[in-house]
Amino acid sequence: MLTVCTWLWGNKYGPGDVAKLAAGVRRNIREPHRFIVISDCGLDIADVEHYAIAEEDRSLLSVKVPVTLPSAIPAVVVP
Q: Which among 36, 63, 64, 39 is positioned nearest to 52, based on CA atoms?
């Protein structure tokens, strides 16, 4: 099963933007998949799994860390 995961924090984007992104994924990905959002705010969007960023970890959101994915894992990274 494919997993699509995105992060939401700060105030540039909101829950409505996440709902549009999730709807676009549902329209265009035919294989079984999960849509996961990790955020610093509460979300209640149908068919979206939500995981909250713990208060003590929110200071880490400003840290830039390079990510290297194994070549066996197909991924699409959306800024």
A: 39
Angle, CA of 71, 25 and 13, to the nearest 5° = 100
Count of alpha carbons within 13 Å of 41, Cβ hemisphere only?
13
pTM to 2 decimal places: 0.68
Dihedral pair phi/psi, residue 63, rounded to 5°? -85, 130
CA 16 vs. chain centroid, Å, equals 13
Q: DSSP E strands: which ranges in the chain?
A: 2-8, 33-39, 49-52
Residue-level pLDDT at 62: 64
| CA atoms of 51 and 71, how far apart (whole Å) | 26
Strand partners for 3: 34
